[in-house]
Specification:
mainly alpha; two-stranded antiparallel ribbon; 2 strands; 185 residues
């Protein structure tokens, strides 16, 4: 019986951490709104596609492209909330679930309509290009970025939810929506 190669194990761990971060977002949305947001991943994928296009094809600096994509992502989320989610929230959870499925499909079409990315063999952009070698495993910049950023995001989210008034309001809404509304949340 052969063991898993070290590089495959390292990439698998980074991919698992990415999935865990995605799951944190899904759980947070479900706990606060009682809806499974099927457009959750697709919302981030649109930003990822635009980031790659800006950095690789348009030669933007990574951090400038990241800042723009974060602003665009926030605007997209707000627009979807105002135009779709708020209209469906009173129609029940099934209507909202189907609405998020429709949003996911719409965002997928948006990605297909983006101009084709001319990578020229370049990998997905990251703010650095270092490779860390630990024994036989080689961790590239995408894996290092995930392993550094994801735990920081989870810790930041935990601090937000436990130490800020906004976090306390979100938790109160998740625990008892009616009582939170009566309290003015």
């Amino acid at each position: 019986m052969s063991l898993l190669p070290a590089d495959a194990l390292a990439h698998g761990i980074a991919l698992g951490v990415s999935y865990g971060l995605l799951a944190c977002g899904l759980v947070l949305v479900f706990r606060t709104n009682r809806v499974i947001n099927l457009a959750h991943g697709e919302t981030g994928a649109v930003g990822a596609a635009i980031l790659a296009k800006l950095v690789i094809d348009e030669h933007w600096p990574f951090l400038a492209a990241l800042a723009l994509v974060c602003v665009l992502g926030a605007a997209l989320g707000a627009a979807l909330e105002l135009t779709v989610v708020r209209r469906l929230v009173d129609r029940g959870p099934v209507a909202l679930l189907v609405g998020t499925l429709g949003i996911a499909q719409l965002l997928l079409v948006v990605q297909f309509l983006l101009p084709e990315l001319n990578t020229g063999g370049k990998p997905y952009p990251t703010p650095f290009t270092e490779v860390l070698t630990i024994g036989p495993a080689h961790l590239g910049s995408p894996e290092l970025l995930v392993l550094a950023v994801a735990p920081a995001v989870v810790v930041g989210l935990a601090l937000l939810l436990t130490r800020t008034p906004l976090g306390l309001m979100l938790r109160a809404t998740a625990d008892n929506r009616e009582a939170a509304e009566l309290a003015g949340v």
